[in-house]
Amino acid sequence: MSKKTSEKFNELVASFASLPTIGKKTAIRLAYFVSKNHLLGTKLAQDIENAIRFIKPCSKCGALSENECCEICSDEDRQRAVLCVVESARDVLILEESGSFNGLYFVLDELSDEKLTKLRVMIAEFGVKELIFAFTHSVNADAMSFFVEDKLKDMNLEFSKIAQGIPSGVHLENVDLISLHKAMVFRTKLK
Ligand SMILES: [Zn+2]
User: If you measure from the C-alpha of residue 159 to the centroid of ligand 1, how many angstroms do you get, rounded to a whole number?
Assistant: First the structure.
Protein backbone atom coordinates (compact mmCIF):
# COMPACT_ATOMS: atom_id res chain seq x y z
CA MET A 1 0.00 0.00 0.00
CA SER A 2 1.11 3.57 -0.66
CA LYS A 3 3.44 5.07 1.95
CA LYS A 4 1.19 8.11 2.01
CA THR A 5 -1.50 6.11 3.81
CA SER A 6 -1.54 6.12 7.60
CA GLU A 7 0.43 3.31 9.23
CA LYS A 8 -2.42 2.63 11.66
CA PHE A 9 -4.81 2.37 8.76
CA ASN A 10 -2.51 -0.07 6.99
CA GLU A 11 -2.28 -2.21 10.12
CA LEU A 12 -6.07 -2.35 10.33
CA VAL A 13 -6.27 -3.35 6.67
CA ALA A 14 -3.69 -6.09 7.29
CA SER A 15 -5.71 -7.38 10.28
CA PHE A 16 -8.92 -7.54 8.28
CA ALA A 17 -7.08 -9.18 5.37
CA SER A 18 -5.81 -11.90 7.70
CA LEU A 19 -9.40 -13.05 8.32
CA PRO A 20 -10.84 -15.94 6.30
CA THR A 21 -12.63 -14.99 3.05
CA ILE A 22 -11.52 -11.32 3.31
CA GLY A 23 -9.44 -10.16 0.34
CA LYS A 24 -7.39 -6.97 0.15
CA LYS A 25 -10.13 -4.86 -1.46
CA THR A 26 -12.71 -5.88 1.14
CA ALA A 27 -10.15 -5.30 3.90
CA ILE A 28 -9.61 -1.72 2.69
CA ARG A 29 -13.36 -1.16 2.48
CA LEU A 30 -13.91 -2.45 6.04
CA ALA A 31 -10.96 -0.51 7.47
CA TYR A 32 -12.25 2.66 5.83
CA PHE A 33 -15.76 2.02 7.14
CA VAL A 34 -14.76 1.52 10.78
CA SER A 35 -12.30 4.43 10.64
CA LYS A 36 -15.13 6.70 9.57
CA ASN A 37 -17.75 5.23 11.95
CA HIS A 38 -16.24 5.56 15.40
CA LEU A 39 -19.22 4.21 17.35
CA LEU A 40 -19.47 1.12 15.23
CA GLY A 41 -15.69 0.63 15.26
CA THR A 42 -15.57 0.87 19.05
CA LYS A 43 -18.42 -1.60 19.42
CA LEU A 44 -16.74 -4.02 17.05
CA ALA A 45 -13.49 -3.78 19.03
CA GLN A 46 -15.36 -4.41 22.29
CA ASP A 47 -17.31 -7.34 20.86
CA ILE A 48 -14.09 -8.97 19.68
CA GLU A 49 -12.43 -8.40 23.06
CA ASN A 50 -15.44 -9.83 24.93
CA ALA A 51 -15.57 -12.87 22.67
CA ILE A 52 -11.89 -13.57 23.30
CA ARG A 53 -12.27 -13.07 27.05
CA PHE A 54 -15.50 -14.93 27.70
CA ILE A 55 -15.98 -17.61 25.06
CA LYS A 56 -14.34 -20.95 25.79
CA PRO A 57 -14.99 -24.59 24.98
CA CYS A 58 -17.80 -26.28 26.96
CA SER A 59 -16.19 -28.64 29.47
CA LYS A 60 -18.47 -31.47 28.36
CA CYS A 61 -18.99 -31.24 24.60
CA GLY A 62 -16.37 -28.73 23.44
CA ALA A 63 -18.85 -26.35 21.75
CA LEU A 64 -18.33 -22.61 22.23
CA SER A 65 -19.71 -21.43 25.55
CA GLU A 66 -19.66 -18.57 28.02
CA ASN A 67 -20.19 -20.95 30.90
CA GLU A 68 -18.45 -24.08 32.14
CA CYS A 69 -21.28 -26.07 30.56
CA CYS A 70 -22.83 -24.81 27.30
CA GLU A 71 -26.51 -24.00 26.72
CA ILE A 72 -27.01 -27.14 24.65
CA CYS A 73 -25.61 -29.52 27.28
CA SER A 74 -27.60 -27.80 30.02
CA ASP A 75 -30.88 -27.68 28.05
CA GLU A 76 -33.11 -30.44 29.42
CA ASP A 77 -35.50 -30.14 26.49
CA ARG A 78 -32.87 -31.45 24.07
CA GLN A 79 -32.99 -35.05 22.99
CA ARG A 80 -30.25 -36.46 25.15
CA ALA A 81 -30.30 -40.00 23.79
CA VAL A 82 -28.81 -38.80 20.48
CA LEU A 83 -25.32 -37.35 20.22
CA CYS A 84 -23.82 -35.89 17.07
CA VAL A 85 -20.03 -36.09 16.76
CA VAL A 86 -18.54 -33.22 14.74
CA GLU A 87 -15.02 -32.23 13.75
CA SER A 88 -15.00 -28.67 15.06
CA ALA A 89 -16.97 -26.28 17.27
CA ARG A 90 -17.82 -24.38 14.09
CA ASP A 91 -19.84 -27.38 12.86
CA VAL A 92 -22.07 -27.08 15.94
CA LEU A 93 -22.94 -23.52 14.90
CA ILE A 94 -23.71 -24.67 11.34
CA LEU A 95 -25.93 -27.58 12.43
CA GLU A 96 -27.73 -25.40 14.98
CA GLU A 97 -28.32 -22.86 12.23
CA SER A 98 -29.87 -25.60 10.05
CA GLY A 99 -32.33 -26.43 12.84
CA SER A 100 -32.22 -30.08 11.79
CA PHE A 101 -30.92 -31.54 15.01
CA ASN A 102 -32.19 -31.38 18.56
CA GLY A 103 -29.78 -33.70 20.34
CA LEU A 104 -26.39 -33.21 21.92
CA TYR A 105 -23.03 -32.61 20.26
CA PHE A 106 -19.49 -33.67 20.83
CA VAL A 107 -16.59 -31.79 19.23
CA LEU A 108 -13.84 -34.24 18.37
CA ASP A 109 -11.17 -31.76 17.16
CA GLU A 110 -8.47 -34.38 17.17
CA LEU A 111 -8.46 -38.03 18.11
CA SER A 112 -6.77 -38.41 21.46
CA ASP A 113 -7.24 -40.67 24.47
CA GLU A 114 -8.30 -37.63 26.48
CA LYS A 115 -11.04 -36.80 23.93
CA LEU A 116 -12.29 -40.37 23.82
CA THR A 117 -12.46 -40.47 27.61
CA LYS A 118 -14.49 -37.22 27.58
CA LEU A 119 -16.82 -38.71 25.00
CA ARG A 120 -17.34 -41.86 27.08
CA VAL A 121 -18.06 -39.76 30.18
CA MET A 122 -20.62 -37.72 28.25
CA ILE A 123 -22.34 -40.80 26.78
CA ALA A 124 -22.63 -42.33 30.25
CA GLU A 125 -23.73 -39.11 31.96
CA PHE A 126 -26.51 -38.28 29.48
CA GLY A 127 -27.60 -41.85 28.75
CA VAL A 128 -26.80 -41.51 25.03
CA LYS A 129 -28.14 -44.36 22.84
CA GLU A 130 -27.26 -43.23 19.32
CA LEU A 131 -24.11 -41.62 17.96
CA ILE A 132 -24.30 -39.75 14.64
CA PHE A 133 -21.08 -38.90 12.84
CA ALA A 134 -21.44 -35.60 10.99
CA PHE A 135 -18.05 -35.34 9.34
CA THR A 136 -17.14 -33.92 5.96
CA HIS A 137 -17.27 -37.02 3.75
CA SER A 138 -13.76 -38.25 3.05
CA VAL A 139 -11.68 -41.39 3.47
CA ASN A 140 -10.14 -39.87 6.55
CA ALA A 141 -13.57 -39.17 8.07
CA ASP A 142 -14.65 -42.78 7.47
CA ALA A 143 -11.47 -44.01 9.16
CA MET A 144 -12.14 -41.67 12.08
CA SER A 145 -15.74 -42.93 12.49
CA PHE A 146 -14.61 -46.57 12.42
CA PHE A 147 -11.94 -45.85 14.98
CA VAL A 148 -14.35 -44.12 17.38
CA GLU A 149 -16.97 -46.82 16.83
CA ASP A 150 -14.43 -49.50 17.65
CA LYS A 151 -13.32 -47.70 20.81
CA LEU A 152 -16.92 -47.43 22.03
CA LYS A 153 -18.15 -50.87 21.01
CA ASP A 154 -18.65 -51.92 24.64
CA MET A 155 -21.14 -49.09 25.27
CA ASN A 156 -24.11 -50.66 23.50
CA LEU A 157 -24.71 -47.74 21.10
CA GLU A 158 -26.31 -47.43 17.71
CA PHE A 159 -24.05 -45.69 15.18
CA SER A 160 -25.07 -43.70 12.12
CA LYS A 161 -23.62 -41.08 9.84
CA ILE A 162 -25.23 -38.18 8.04
CA ALA A 163 -26.49 -39.21 4.58
CA GLN A 164 -24.32 -39.13 1.47
CA GLY A 165 -26.35 -36.25 -0.02
CA ILE A 166 -23.40 -34.15 1.03
CA PRO A 167 -20.71 -34.30 -1.67
CA SER A 168 -17.36 -35.81 -0.79
CA GLY A 169 -14.81 -33.34 0.53
CA VAL A 170 -17.30 -30.46 0.85
CA HIS A 171 -17.30 -28.93 4.31
CA LEU A 172 -20.63 -28.68 6.15
CA GLU A 173 -20.33 -24.92 6.04
CA ASN A 174 -20.73 -24.97 2.26
CA VAL A 175 -23.75 -27.25 2.18
CA ASP A 176 -27.12 -25.57 1.82
CA LEU A 177 -29.46 -25.90 4.80
CA ILE A 178 -32.01 -28.11 3.03
CA SER A 179 -29.35 -30.65 2.03
CA LEU A 180 -27.96 -30.57 5.55
CA HIS A 181 -31.42 -31.13 7.00
CA LYS A 182 -32.00 -34.08 4.63
CA ALA A 183 -28.60 -35.52 5.44
CA MET A 184 -29.48 -35.49 9.12
CA VAL A 185 -33.02 -36.88 8.72
CA PHE A 186 -31.95 -39.63 6.29
CA ARG A 187 -28.83 -40.57 8.20
CA THR A 188 -27.63 -44.10 7.54
CA LYS A 189 -27.01 -46.75 10.15
CA LEU A 190 -23.48 -48.06 10.41
CA LYS A 191 -23.26 -51.80 10.78
ZN1 LIG B 1 -21.73 -28.53 25.85
Answer: 20
